[in-house]
Design brief:
By secondary structure, the chain is an alpha+beta fold. The chain contains four helices and 15 strands. Helix 1 runs antiparallel to helix 2 and helix 3 packs across helix 4.
């Protein structure tokens, strides 16, 4: 299956340390070699990097690893193709506009016999079940709330109902963000860690790299990192239960469903 990585913070923060380990899972420490992508919210804009090459050997991934882009919400994905061929159009995360702002979505899993009816307001470009599900979500949210954007708390029960229905078709781990908060839904594997003062040193699982966060943060910083499997071997990661949907805002978990 694919690999997911998300970050939600209370101040713009770079993801270089976490991405250094995550990158290795795209063809070096794991067999997921069918492309990768990462997207950063920056104000109302969104900076997206996609590459159908294995992340561990991608010059674009190396650029991202070395370039400290600061963001409050980040979603990354390493692909193991199950629906749709390897190609740029099938590489996550996917991005769409809703209520005048960008939304990002990345999925880990496979959906069987999944063919939701779409009105045509949002259409997939590629051939993945993941992008199809995302288009269905965008239409579901627009159909439920109309043309006026609700607050993030009101989104949670609607997303949960939609996700539970989609999950009857297969494995449905996903990350979703509108730039304000980040939603994480587990079907099989998904875990998170919250970093806050007093900050300590973290060490990566996939590469012999460590960082002392107390030297690069302020006492007010908060960072939540979500991943398919824990990225560090000396921090307390919390696993989401199957079917659990969590919402993160300002670097901490604030709601669950």
């Amino acid at each position: 299956m694919c690999q997911l990585l998300g970050m939600n913070c209370n101040v713009p923060t770079d993801i270089c340390f976490s991405f250094a380990g995550f990158q290795q899972r795209g063809g070096r420490t794991d067999h997921h070699g069918d492309g990768w992508g990462i997207a950063f919210f920056e104000g109302r804009g969104c900076r997206v990097f996609l590459d159908p090459e294995p992340a561990a050997h991608s010059p674009v991934a190396q650029l991202v690893r070395d370039y400290p882009i600061r963001s409050m919400n980040v979603i990354a994905h390493i692909r193991k193709a199950t629906r749709g061929p390897v190609g740029l159009e099938n590489t996550h995360p996917f991005m769409r506009e809703l209520w005048g702002r960008y939304w990002l979505f990345a999925h880990n899993g496979t959906l069987d016999n999944y063919d939701p009816a779409l009105s045509g307001q949002c259409r997939p470009v590629g051939a993945t079940d993941s992008e199809l599900a995302f288009c269905h979500l965008i239409e579901t949210l627009r159909g439920h709330f109309g043309d006026r954007a609700p607050d993030s708390d009101a989104l949670l029960p609607v997303i949960r109902t939609w996700a539970d229905d989609v999950a009857t078709r297969g494995t449905f781990n996903f990350l979703l963000s509108n730039g304000d908060c980040l939603f994480a839904r587990a079907s099989t594997q998904l875990a998170y860690v919250e970093r806050r003062a007093p900050f300590t040193t973290a060490h990566l699982v996939d590469e012999d790299v460590a960082v002392d966060f107390s030297t690069v943060t302020t006492p007010d910083d908060r960072v939540a990192v979500i991943a398919t499997l824990p990225l560090t071997d000396n921090e307390a990661w919390t696993a989401l239960a199957p079917g659990e949907l969590a919402m993160f805002r300002h670097g901490e978990r604030v709601r669950a469903g």
